[in-house]
Amino acid sequence: MLPLAWALNIEYVPTRLRSTVVTVIMMGYSLGTALAGPVTVWLAPRFGWEGVFVAGGAATLAIAAALFVWLPESVRFLVARDRDPVSLAATLNRIDPGLGATASDQFVLGDEARGASGNFRVSQLFAGRLRWITPLLWLGYIASTLAVYFKANWGPIVYEDLHFTRDLAAYVSSFSGLMGAVLGLLLMRFTDRKGALAVAFFPRSPRRCYC
Predict the structure, then answer these.
(1) Contact by Cβ (8 Å): 38, 171
(2) Window from 36-50, 94-108, 114-128, 140-154 with minimum mean pLDDT
(3) Cβ 86 vs Cβ 68: under 8 Å
(4) What is the pLDDT of residues 116-160, one digit of tens each?
(5) Per-residue confidence at 195, pLDDT binned at 50, 70, 90?
(6) 172 with 42: CB under 8 angstroms?
(7) What are phi and psi of 195, to 5 degrees?
(8) What is the enclosing helix (H) or strand (E) of 101?
(9) 195 three-class SS
């Protein structure tokens, strides 16, 4: 879900703010992980471990329903597939009220080569210089996601092995995620000004630095 959320959101912001917007999205993820500890501490004694899963699942379904109703479709997707010009024009007019786009206008992606059929092919991910960029992005994302997974799942266990109480271990895990989000936001503002290579020269939380 996260790569899709990043791709959709950065369509609607200037290039100079893209790294920051990605980090803001990740702060939402971090807020969820930060709340997991206190929510579990409150729910588990009252409703058992099953109550924690029910609460998480219900919240996810509620958010999915809200996104289905209010989330706009990707402008780039609509243009590439020649779909729903009415919604496309309406979305562009919300972004720029002075644009005056109509469904009868012709919309073109000026920064992307379009195939003869307009259909995506996996081979496009490895065309030209992307033959190196795509595998490196995949490796970086896999490594980062694994780091997040192991920290979220094994962090509280490690704290308990250090003789923290279970409640304190949950709170410490939540606090570390929240602080990582705040520091990641500071780093991404610098990245927006100096470029993505700036990430290589600063210590970083593995879950926050996506450019």
Answers:
(1) yes
(2) 114-128
(3) no
(4) 445 677 888 888 888 898 998 889 888 877 887 787 778 778 888
(5) low
(6) no
(7) 105, 165
(8) none
(9) coil
Token digits for 13? 């912001």
Tokens 């990740």 identify what position?
Answer: 26
Tokens 């990430």 correspond to 199
Place of tokens 């996506």: 210
Residue with tokens 């917007």: 21
Residue 200 has pLDDT above 60, yes or no: yes
- Each as own residue / partner, the long-range contacts of residues 50-56 (CB below 8 Å, 24 or more positions apart, any chain) are none
Closest CA to 103 of 115, 90, 113: 90
Rounded CA separation 45/174 (Å): 19
| Residue 78: how many other CB atoms lie within 10 Å | 19
